[in-house]
Structure formats: structure tokens, C-alpha cells
Design goal:
single chain; alpha+beta; twelve-stranded mixed beta sheet; four-stranded antiparallel beta sheet; 21 strands; 28% strand
Length: 384
């Protein structure tokens, strides 16, 4: 009898679920929509409290579209960033690598176009930015105009010019001159994925000269699933902003499939969502790089972020005289804390974790925060 009742209950549950997750199409009653989602345009909100009086804006400062070697349109890149919960996105198509520019003209109907190489086509390097700006305005997204200067990894590397005013004025045979051209229009330059195509992060002759001229303003600590801990020390030594970016060419659904985590983000602490405010924040190094639940930045900023997201509450003294306290996380970011060298305990987003200690003051080491190649910030918590 119990088996029959269980089966009936399961059947009723299935029928209710089917009724809940289907609805007739409003324009055609013969079509039944099998979904529980009303709209595909759903934004994933990422909650981060203000830090030091600044709003924390979520940004991706390195993306590509079909105007270079990306797989999607500029408009989709903006739509995607909005749905992923970002506030700011940069379009940074390659200057030197534009394979789709060669392919597309070959399929123009009724137009005779002979194209052998990318350099044979004169294109507007601002085109993808212009298209993205229109869509960004519709979604109240901030669009950062930019482009990527792409030269051989071993000798030069790839660098993003951000906050550009005219990408067509950047190209030059000498990569240093290309950087000078970008800086002349007020752009900031970010060194991308510093370990790609190399056997170490040692500085090349080009980088030494670029830093000497003050041509580089920031560096990626995370790019896609690459993590460059040594770049943290370089950023601190040379006064660079730190960033984490997707460098996405496909869709982020594909790039981050199975991760169930937010995409790479550069957290920018700024007063308002304007290009000037973002630019000033980068120049002031008010950034924290986030990727796959790891964060990197200047120690004081990391500690401020932790304190803004985590609250400590004394609960009681247990039978062994230990203080029992709770750490509550009111953000979308997870934190891995270690007390006295213990194995880290993860405080997941919007959760509370109890701890037991024998002191009234506790020093926590946040193990998924990096303030150096092998350094993690410590936070002091007073329980009483």
C-alpha cells in the first residue's frame, strides 16, 4: 500500500511539475511552450557591497568579436555581458589579427572581391566599438572602447589599449610606437596574459623599454583560466592596475560551461559609472581581479573587500571555554579562511559558517585572496 501511495505521489508531483513548467503560446494556442522561464533575457545579478565608499563595478576589459577573431557580433558581446551581471565591458578587437574580415567579402553576392590577406582590406578599426556602443546604451551598460595590439608572444606580446578615441590612429610597425599612439589619445595600456607563449614571466627587452617610457598602466593577473601570480608582484613594483578578464572569443556560456561560477571580472571601485570615473579608478589602482573564486589585488583593498562582505557575530562560550562565533557572507563572492594555519573553511555566498576559538581576537588568513606571488591578506576579528 505504501508503495502504491508513493507511486501516486510521485505521479502527481510529475504532473504538477509539467503543469508548472508549460504554458500555451500567447499568439498560437496550438503551441505549448515547455519551459519554466518566461524570458531568455535574464540577468544574473552579482551582489558586492560598497567598499571604502566606492561602488564595486563588475567589468571585463578584454573581449573579441567577429570584427577580429571572435565568434559573435559586437551587439551580442554587450548582451552577454549584461546577462552575466557585468556593469562594464570593453570591446578590444585585434588590430593585426582579423581572419573574418578576409572570409566575409568572399561570400558577398554579386560583388567581385579579391582578397588574399588581411592587410589587403582597409577597415574601420572603430566599427565594432561603434556597434557595441549602441547596444550598450540600450542596456545601461558602460562600453569601454579599445583594441588589442597583437605581436609575437616571445618578443613583444599582446596589449590592450583601453579608453581609446580612434583605433585607426594606433597601428604602427614599431610596437612601442603603437603604444605611444594609443597613449597620445589618452588611452590606458594593459599587458595581456603575460605568460602566454613564453617559458617564464621574465621581462623582454620590449617590456623593459615600454615600462621605462611609462607606456604600460595595467596587467592581467587572470586571463580565461590562466593565473599569473608573479604578475601581482610586478604590478605592485611598477604601480600597475590588476585585472581579470575573459579574453572571450566564443560565447561565455561555452567558455565557462560547467564552472557554475561568474566569468572573470575586474572589480573596479569607482564613484560613478562613467568612462572618466573608471579610468581614474584604474589609474589609482582601485581594482581587484576575480577569476574562478580567486581574487588578487593590493592588500588594503582586499582586506576592505573582505570586511565589506563578511560580518562576525559572537554567539556563546561553549563548555570548553571556547568562543563560538559566526561569519556571515552577504555577497556573491566566496571566501576561504584559515585560522592559525588550519585547513581553509569556505564561506560560500550568502551563507553563515560557525567557528570555535580560544581567544577574543582572531586573525583570519583569506587563502583565496592574493596580495603577492605567495602572499595572502590577514584580517583581525574582535569577538567581544
Amino acid at each position: 500500500m505504501k508503495k502504491i501511495l508513493f507511486t501516486l505521489a510521485a505521479l502527481m508531483s510529475a504532473l504538477c511539475a509539467q503543469a508548472q513548467y508549460t504554458y500555451p503560446d500567447a499568439s498560437n494556442p496550438d503551441v505549448l511552450r515547455v519551459t519554466r522561464r518566461v524570458s531568455n533575457d535574464t540577468r544574473r545579478e552579482i551582489v558586492i557591497p560598497d567598499v571604502n565608499g566606492y561602488t564595486v563595478y563588475k567589468a571585463d576589459l578584454h573581449t573579441h568579436t567577429m570584427f577580429s577573431d571572435g565568434r559573435v557580433t559586437p551587439e551580442w558581446r554587450v548582451d552577454e555581458a549584461w546577462m552575466d551581471g557585468l556593469d562594464v565591458v570593453a570591446i578590444t578587437d585585434h588590430i593585426e589579427n582579423r581572419p573574418y574580415v578576409v572570409r566575409i567579402p568572399k561570400y558577398l553576392d554579386g560583388v567581385e572581391v579579391k582578397v588574399e590577406k588581411e592587410k589587403d582590406i582597409d577597415v574601420d578599426l572603430n566599427a565594432s566599438v561603434k556597434l557595441a556602443q549602441v547596444q550598450a546604451k540600450k542596456l545601461n551598460m558602460l562600453l569601454v572602447p579599445g583594441s588589442e595590439i597583437s605581436r609575437p608572444y616571445k618578443t613583444v606580446g599582446h596589449l590592450n589599449a583601453l579608453f581609446t578615441t580612434d583605433n585607426n590612429a594606433i597601428p604602427a610597425k614599431d610596437p612601442l610606437q603603437a603604444l605611444r599612439n594609443a597613449k597620445a589619445q589618452g588611452a590606458l595600456v594593459q599587458f595581456n596574459h603575460p605568460g602566454t607563449g613564453r617559458t617564464s614571466l621574465d621581462l623582454t627587452e620590449f617590456e623593459i623599454n615600454a615600462y621605462k617610457e611609462g607606456l604600460i598602466d595595467g596587467i592581467e593577473i587572470f586571463n580565461n583560466n590562466g593565473f599569473y601570480p608573479k604578475a601581482i608582484d610586478r604590478a605592485l613594483e611598477k604601480g600597475l592596475f590588476m585585472s581579470a578578464n575573459s579574453d572571450v572569443h566564443v560565447t561565455t556560456d561555452i567558455a565557462y560551461a560547467g564552472a557554475c561560477l561568474p566569468r572573470n571580472m575586474t572589480l573596479i571601485l569607482a564613484k560613478e559609472k562613467t568612462l572618466e570615473a573608471m579610468k581614474q579608478a584604474l589609474l589609482a589602482h582601485r581594482t581587484i581581479a576575480y577569476s574562478f573564486d580567486q581574487m588578487a589585488g593590493e592588500k588594503s583593498l582586499l582586506k576592505a573587500l573582505f570586511n565589506a562582505c563578511i560580518t562576525a557575530e559572537f554567539v556563546r562560550v561553549d563548555s570548553k571555554g571556547r568562543n563560538v562565533f559566526n561569519l556571515t557572507n552577504m555577497s556573491s563572492l566566496p571566501f576561504a579562511v584559515s585560522i592559525g594555519g588550519s585547513n581553509p573553511a569556505w564561506i560560500e555566498p550568502f551563507s553563515t559558517v560557525p567557528f570555535k576559538v580560544g581567544k577574543d581576537t582572531v586573525e583570519l588568513t583569506v587563502m583565496n585572496m592574493w596580495c603577492g606571488e605567495d602572499k595572502h591578506p590577514t584580517v583581525v576579528v574582535k569577538l567581544k
